[in-house]
Structures are given as C-alpha cells and as structure tokens.
C-alpha cells in the first residue's frame, strides 16, 4: 500500500492542530512527522515554523509536563527527569521546569504517599511493610534518602 505524502502546508496544518491540542516536545513532533510520512528534508523547516508561530516551545512543554506529573500523578523528581530525558528535552529546560516544584509541597506529598502506602499494608510484618513502601515510593520517582527519612518519621510515630 502506497502511503500518501503530505505537502509541507498540509503537514504544517496537521501539526498546528497537534500542538494546539496539548503541549508537545520537539521529539514528539519529530515522531509525528515520520508518522505522517513527511519527507525528512522538510522536517527542520516545519519544526522551525512551529517554533516561530509559538506552537512549539520546549520550555513551556517542560513546565507543563513537570507540573502535571507532579500535581496529578504524584511523581517524584527522578521519574519526571527521566521521562523528560526520554522525550529528548534539553537539560536547561528540565532544570528550569524542575525548579518550579515547591520543596514543601514535594515533601508533604512524599509523606502523604508514604503514610497511605504504609497504612494499606497493616497486616504485613514490619520489615515487609517497610520494604514494600520503599519500593513503591522509589518506583514513583522519589529520591531514596528522602524516602528513608519519610519512613523513619512514620516508624517513630507507631
């Protein structure tokens, strides 16, 4: 089956909608260009146009991504960092976006998650409860030293 090759203008129109619907990383737009079957020679030009028209902005994407994953999914910094790296976001944009995470809120959410998880494992032995809680928080992307300190606080409350 022959894939229809889009003209540059058709591709640009599709990508304007794609970017207007939700913030996208440069990498996601690049992948979409391949998906649409746009000639590789036109990729850079299309991406430049999207940036000039402010449909595509890596910093803005990183800010929204960090905010969303932290507030909605309770992800820790490590998980967010690696997810952004996977989307090929620049180190500069990642650092700038991560700086918006409020330190107090970060610790509060970590403690809340730790308490909930620990509480949900009430029937388990102490060491099993502790290990499962640690594993859960690490998988959520929280730093191990913060996880340990949060667990120490919970264990001393008992």
From TrEMBL:
Does this UniProt record's set of keywords contain Ubl conjugation?
A: no
UniProt keyword terms in alphabetical order: Cytoplasm
What is the annotated localization of this protein?
Cytoplasm
Where the record annotates domain RecX third three-helical, the positions are 107-151
Its predominant location is cytoplasm
The record's listing under InterPro entries reads: RecX_HTH_2nd, RecX_HTH_3rd, Regulatory_RecX, WH-like_DNA-bd_sf
Provide the GO biological process annotations: regulation of DNA repair
Q: Where in this chain does the record put each RecX second three-helical domain? A: 57-98
Among Pfam families, the record links this protein to: RecX_HTH2, RecX_HTH3
A single GO cellular-component term from the record reads: cytoplasm
Family assignment from sequence similarity: Belongs to the RecX family.
Q: What does this protein do?
A: Modulates RecA activity.
Per its record, how is this protein called by name?
Answer: Regulatory protein RecX
The species is Flavisolibacter ginsengisoli DSM 18119
